[in-house]
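#onboarding

Welcome to the new folks! Below is a worked example of what a typical request in this channel looks like: someone posts a single protein sequence, and someone else replies with the predicted structure as tokens. Don't worry about understanding the tokens yet, we'll cover that in week two.

Example request:
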Amino acid sequence: MAGDNLQLYETEVGNTVNNMALLGLGDHINFAVERARKGMNCRSALEWEIKQLYTKEYSVASAEMSS
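Example response:
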């Protein structure tokens, strides 16, 4: 799953992910899955800024979450 997401990101956004980013991404995914299992829906106070600054990345992530 994570590998598919990385490949989609690299294809759609045109960036590659370095090994150091993978460590942080793994933690992020783990915590997100744990929150989802507990029924916790956490929204970021920075969501608007993230959406504006990282338009492509946000679009890819949103599409992946809804599928």
